[in-house]
């Protein structure tokens, strides 16, 4: 941590700030520049509210130099992590191909989509049972009934399931039945829920919040990991910007950034990012070319009648074509897709 | 709802889209323009996923014309609403002056601050018992013990209390003891929690999410109201933009916008928006001049030692000066501050 | 400037980076922390491209500690600056009340508006002769003819004129005839134009770019000042955010920030920020309460027929009421409005 | 254009708004819904300031249904356009590989970089002669001398040159000597400059502004095209968002969006977007996989000593490796790279 002092601070002021730092168990180191003085603070600063020092009138600003996350950080864990989702490997060259409908509507619907997607190469099945909807009047998902449908289809197809948990109330049933527990963008900073996910061992797919910086996203992973669960997969799904033609702006730079700063796998969800089906194919190829460890794509057998987000779903035939191209790009990049 | 078709659509295509609309119980009305055709859809569209129609290849875009919220909307409730917080009126000319420390640290601390703030004119006491922190390693609040401290100070000073609820787990105890339940920015779209708040009658202070549009904010209020609790106060606390010198960008245009589109009271929190104590005074005056129904300001007797967010807290003396000026501006604007 | 090195850097690497710094004429100062080493760089860093050091593989990041602007900075010029616009003082307690139509349309139009505005208390006349329009098909302004109209109205009313310069081509005629040369948001980083404005002495009203950070805005002022013209007034007119109900988000925190970091006067343009006439009144009061040195408000005698931006214009009667209230708030704040 | 009226408007009000519309040469069409009335406006609305109708108190909002650009629009020009840059084809399956230093520093520097880049497969040479810099104290480029250096290297290598024009003052010399005139992000809405570019025939590389929506970007292309120059290539270079770890957020969804809505070629500049050299390789592959018509990449023989933006430059060897991979991806996608 670096504390920048105002120009022309007196010795007395410098000593006052130094003492404030030392009283929190840190060592100090003074650098007197041509126009200003700065105080370097040495020691573990992760538990200190750095903005506190800005209260002192002699202080201009406080800057941190150390990343505030440890367990998620590549600096302390140089090798890539791989997460095992009920036998399906994600990361370290293994591509997760997650496919399925936005909302679970019926056994027949999910079964038909799952079988088609599996035939194309998908290795994980997604489907929303509990749906976070902006409007209280919109379809909110089938709930536990939807979860049962997913389990039935899993039994039949062998595809492990991915579905979103919205409330700690259902943590036990999810822990028992769901292979990869998804935390949606809107709950990325639901800290109580994150802490509870740390108590179990199920892998967690942590979506980036619409307005989350990389650091905040990694800190949310850190919440889960610090509480004991290291099986975290990150998921980029677009951030909110001034551009509204697309639902969100897909930030594919996040892929190399995640790889640089953390050791966790990263999956991309192009369906929710753009909100338009014709963006899914180019963005899927783009994500894999940038080094993503997986794709989560909405597939629907009858998008015109979907109860939710039909406009962003691919039909099974389109999905099949997509996987062919993805597999070509994966080869160039050095990733394996087992078809 | 308006559906805009592609240039040069055929009769057949128009009929296909029309039928899709009618099958959802809406009437249609065709307008053929010089270059394109649009379909006006008549009926209640609040329960319809409008993006669905974008699936049809003849459709360019779908636009809604009606606001998706009803209970929060001024169109259906032309008079201003007033919310009664255990005897303190908020809205309709009555200014809520909420003050207190960011975090509850001890009875002595809260008591001293509350007494000073009350003497200056504050009519509600805030204090964080459960703290949402970006880092799992930061101070997370005293929890239920903190809530007990607030109750003790309330008993002594008579100030009703405002504190943040982070999880449905504590809803019952909050309903019993807290006068105004705050929902933080990060939980603005924790829909499960919102639905549960609709089951009780306690007033709710709903902070705007960091990336929430006005419409999304009002839809979150609608969640609470649709479930049965109409005692909602909105709270502007800054949005996330590209500017990082201030913690967030305080959007004071939200005050006249809330007043135009809804009938709910709106309170402003300048402390969290800017993250710097010297922004609090000008922004408080600014908010009241723009017509806010209240201010929520962090006050701390010893900001240098605060366990959280000391940098944005006013000392009691500064708060006292602020209230004097606020009261002058309120008079010009036609609002009453009872000092 | 602070250079943060990677964890576990070797002595050799540290020396390599140090030498790179020294070769640019700076002194270095090493701080070895528990987990990482940082290098403090001492000397004038304003002319150094700090990102350059990030090229070295041992470097994690480079942070500046010193503001990159000098002439605009309050640190080197502690007193407020006042700008004299042909006899009208702006800053140091003097409020600029700039009013007039968005576009100049005819002598009669401008004259009628100017006389009404002056009677209400306006002391500067605005009007667009050259109009920056997003569409090439939209009305582009009357150009030099519009400028002549403004001059004619100035002669009659005595109000100094404010109008936008879009191209260096007209710099001479603006320098001769315009009292306060406005640089629009879209040209805030038209560096060639800024340098040329530094060659003259006419005061410049520098609008903040839609996506400009405070620092970039101040650096654009620095361009003009470094080239020799210190008569710069800053103008906040809203920034672009994810919220699209309002045209832009008016950032009133910019007022105390400008005051803290620079010595320049700051004026607010609520008309362009919101794009809706009913936002102008509350935001004008809000801006003055926050300490603005002036307001630029669009006034039109017949907004329904305006050739541009009628939706955000006040009628003269509304403007008159606004000035009454502004003057009440100014009194509370300690500013003078001479009516 | 659609005008949405307030709930419960009277016949008289509807007629008033209708007349306002008709007086501007448009036909109207009324739709009476269950709760509100809307007016469809038929005719050419590109020259009409649509916000004007919001002035009427009976109007809630006005929405456009037609894109405001014509010449750039795919709707009126269904085939892809190809731009010929002095013999190098861009678009329609032909990939532009633009490489070179950020700033021109010397003949030797540019020559060495150009020869290496050409050997790797680059077909266009970039280099900044006039540099837009945030700080007036930073290196501003060699100006005309830099342009001469580029011409000399072009003569030797045969690579057509791409360089940025910052001011109309140099339009003639650029028109004579530069093969592809770059307009930087900060000048994307320098409308005077755009109009002048329409007077010549040289191809223009139009960078997206940091805060430009797709529509605004296309409108800027429309400015050039409407003035007579149809040789426009769009360039995505990142937009400004709340994330500051990367310089900007590269919006690769822009590639399919540009292709859907316009017929113009699109090139991606990953160097300026991220501001870090290690982002260039993954983002280049990503852009080509998404369907970009070209890449503009900064290459420097000695990034540690670059006068500008060294941190985002690739060394020639890295660039060579990149082009090998790009060429593999291009093959999968169906694009040709002539190496």
Structure description:
Four copies of one chain form a homotetramer. With 339 residues, chain A is an alpha/beta fold. Chain A folds into two domains: 62 residues, Alpha-Beta Plaits (2-Layer Sandwich); 255 residues, TIM Barrel, CATH 3.20.20. In chain A, helix 6 links the parallel strand 11 and strand 12. In chain A, 58% of the residues are buried. The mean pLDDT of chain A is 94. Chains in contact: A-B, A-C, A-D, B-C, B-D, C-D. Chains A and B meet through helix 5 and helix 6 of A and helix 5 and helix 6 of B.
Compact overview of the structure:
Four copies of one chain form a homotetramer. Chain A is built from ten helices and 14 strands.
User: Which class do the helix and strand fractions of chain A yield?
Assistant: alpha/beta
Biggest protein-protein contact in the assembly: A-B, 53 and 53 residues
Number of E-type strands of chain A: 14
**For the CA atoms, what is the radius of gyration of chain A?**
23 Å
- CATH level 1 class label of the largest domain in chain A: Alpha Beta
What is the averaged pLDDT score of chain A? Answer: 94
* Uncertain parts of chain A: none
What would CATH call the homologous superfamily of the largest domain in chain A? Aldolase class I
Our estimate of the beta-strand percent of chain A is: 15-25%
Secondary structure elements and pairings:
Four copies of one chain form a homotetramer.
Chain A (H helix, E strand, L loop, with lengths): L1 E4 L5 H12 L4 E6 L4 E6 L16 E5 L19 E3 L2 E3 L5 E5 L6 H14 L3 E3 L17 H14 L3 E4 L6 H7 L2 E4 L7 H7 L6 E4 L6 H13 L5 E5 L17 H8 L4 E3 L1 H5 L2 H13 L4 E5 L17 H18 L6
Parallel strand pairs in A: 7-8, 7-14, 8-9, 9-10, 10-11, 11-12, 12-13, 13-14
Antiparallel strand pairs in A: 1-3, 1-4, 2-3, 5-6
